[in-house]
């Protein structure tokens, strides 16, 4: 409290940045590892004891299907053929690989199969990098379906560790907090105003303290977090953080070598008959903590998740006159002009979803159904299944499915003819959306809104009233923007720059 009060009174950094650093460091240091590779604290993630989903309790199954909604897959192959690999996201990468190897052997023994399918998602993509590095021929693998994999890290993690946050005028006073919280949420705009109680230099010091505390504890001292470092940033970060000759540094370097050889190793897998598939998102800015124009799914830059596809800068198109780099006889340029898929490791088996938010991927029913189909069907590519084009769109059907379930419970005979007709049509339209796999922008949102309104009309839900939030958003956004354009990028107590 004292550093905060003194900094507000004096308009100087009176220990505020140090306080922020220590607070974050102390909060996160418990997950860090020592230089000898041992954890500072021994804690374990609740896993499923190398059991198939069929052997799990109903509560465990609910958790598994909530994390990865592929109940449709087990409906086809049986829960005895699905194993959910839970691991410590802030753990020892090679201990995780050992545990994965054990699970693979157990699954092979239980099912009588000599190979397994892998479905690595997000950070699981980095785990697959380490696993493939240890098994470059893929002797135990039948197919790999990668879903938004952190195959070459995330620019966000790398730049936070490098201390490269976006402190430009617009970055700090317009974009960082609004885009982090959401531009349709008044909170971010309110923060833009609130940080002006301190001078710009003090705000930057505070944010640097937070970022450095996070980097020095949870990021730089955990091997799985090094799995999120882009290979291009490794040398600089290794020089900054790693102590040569220690086991921790050796494990990190071991992963880096696996990372730079990942695509080559996967091509070895393919040459040995392993099917490799990839699903990724693009078209969105990386969270605005950092200064980047890379195309992304908000969390991971798309060049990483796609294993090397070429992208335009975010919110732009590929340069005028751009020509496809490889496979000249087949079109791999996206209709929106943002993607050249010909340069990715597996252009014939990589699918792209435009404007797909990384954190909302599991809510896109098309992504989930595609992943399940890739697991079930013996072989397919982007040209053999017209219902899953290589370039598709995003949608979030989580709430739509919930509203459909509620609508199906309604006894239409209890409604007026008008309400019954409206609900029936809205329900039919909603179900029609779920029957499609080619996304048409805006259709899901419209069907969801109409079904909700039809249910609200008969009392199943409250009618939405966003007037208060809309008013708060308007006031906060307007005040923030007026301050930026007329007062400038500075604290309330700072003199205007000459």
Helices, strands, pairings?
Elements: H1 2-10, H2 16-28, H3 58-67, H4 71-77, H5 93-111, E1 116-118, H6 123-134, E2 141-147, H7 155-162, H8 169-181, H9 186-194, H10 200-219, H11 223-226, H12 234-241, H13 247-260, H14 262-271, E3 275-282, H15 302-305, E4 310-311, E5 339-340, E6 350-354, H16 365-376, E7 391-393, H17 398-409, H18 417-434, H19 443-457, H20 467-487
Helix pairs in contact: 2-10, 4-16, 5-6, 6-13, 7-10, 8-9, 9-20, 17-18, 17-19, 18-19
What is the CATH class name of the domain at 85-154 and 260-393? Alpha Beta
Record the strand order, biggest sheet. 1-2-3-6-7
Order of helices and strands: HHHHHEHEHHHHHHHHEHEEEHEHHHH
Radius of gyration, rounded?
25 Å
- Could you tell me the CATH topology label of the domain at 85-154 and 260-393: Rossmann fold
Q: In what range is the share of β-strand residues?
A: 5-15%
Report mean pLDDT, rounded to a whole number.
93
Describe this structure in words.
With 498 residues, the chain is an alpha/beta fold. Among the domains are: 204 residues, Rossmann fold (3-Layer(aba) Sandwich), CATH 3.40.50; 60 residues, no CATH class. Helix content is 48%, strand content 6%. It has 20 helices and 7 strands. The strands form 2 sheets. A 5-stranded parallel β-sheet has the order 1-2-3-6-7, with helices on both faces. A two-stranded antiparallel ribbon has the order 4-5. Helix 6 crosses helix 13. It starts with a helix and ends in an 11-residue tail after the last helix.
